[in-house]
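Case study 2.
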Amino acid sequence: MKASVKEQSVENVHIRELFSLRDRVALVTGGAGRYGRQICHALAEAGATVIVGSRNHDRCEAFAEDMREADGEAEALPLDITNKESLLSAAATIESRWGRLDVLFNNAVSVRAAPVAEHSVEDWSRAMDANSTALYQTIRVFGEMMAKHNAGSIVNIASIYGVVSPDFRIYEGCAEMTNPPSYGFAKAGMIQLTRYFAVHFARHRVRVNCISPGGLFSEAMPLQFVEEYVKRTPLGRMAGASDLKGAAVFLASDASAYVTGANLVVDGGYTAL
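Prediction:
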């Protein structure tokens, strides 16, 4: 029997409740990295218990401890997304300790910055294994875990370089910042895989979306690169320490209950040109 329109829609909920992640359990892969830290803080500030997953357990543990002091509940979890046994072990730990996983952020990435002439076939293969194949495995393991509970939100962190090609003019004189061809290929694939799994998991009420951020400012970046990037960006700056927070909480929470298969670009207008 088909559900009525009323049964299909969500009841009227106060906006504060829609954005709340209270009592939700969220896993962020690569959670102690530059983008991951911002995402973890945002989820915790919205009320979630945050699990910081990474191969570097000591780094994650130190970050989780800092988060507990500042934001609330956070735990570190050893996780190598290129290893299926590690993924299954992490899933079993989460199921045993918390009983479910409500939110997954696929943020971990492995990049070797090198121009095409120095980016070997072996480099390409390693990038595909660490980024594309690992992503597929991670969504399969945790998506199926969510599907058993008929609820969940998966958010993949892609990039503007999954949407447009790098503008190599901004990299001139900054060899260490060069963008390799495998990175954009993997991120474009991530955006498409997001759509695929959004449809696949829809019947289990698991939503799958994507965020494509622009460049996140770091003091370690060469000044020349920052200046050229800013010139290329309509809002006149790189992303800052809070610019991903709103998008992250929106897609993780019930505020986006009717959003799936979307790619939310957060880039200060970079890709609008």
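Residues 121-148 form the longest helix (28 residues).
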